[in-house]
Amino acid sequence: MVVGGKVKKPGKRGRKPAKIDLKAKLERSRQSARECRARKKLRYQYLEELVSSRERAICALREELEMYKQWCMAMDQGKIPSEIKALLTGEEQSKSQQNSSRHMKAGKTDANSNSCEYHEFIFRGAC
Length: 127
What we know:
Blueprint lengths: L1 E2 L2 E2 L14 H55 L5 H25 L4 H16 L1
Antiparallel strand pairs: 1-2
Main location: nucleus
GO molecular function: DNA binding; DNA-binding transcription factor activity
Protein name: cAMP-responsive element-binding protein-like 2
């Protein structure tokens, strides 16, 4: 049969299958399976580590939340927890140092800023 100046043989179309050694093909398949299992194992190890770290973070956040709840209950009873007192005294000392240096530079006082920052701290950090 002649088509477009080329002689074509009747029969199967497409590429002729190359005679690949069956043993080599099986070995490549085994190697690919080994690599796939190794990748899967690494992926699962990574995911297990990720889950473990997230669980630790959740536990830490739960403990922190419980601490804040206790602080709020104490403040509702009119008591100020020692931790908050320590934070406030440390914050007040650093603010007084900042204010004194700020007053020297600016030459004016800002009395309302301390009370606003105090309330922001209480509302953000404690409850």
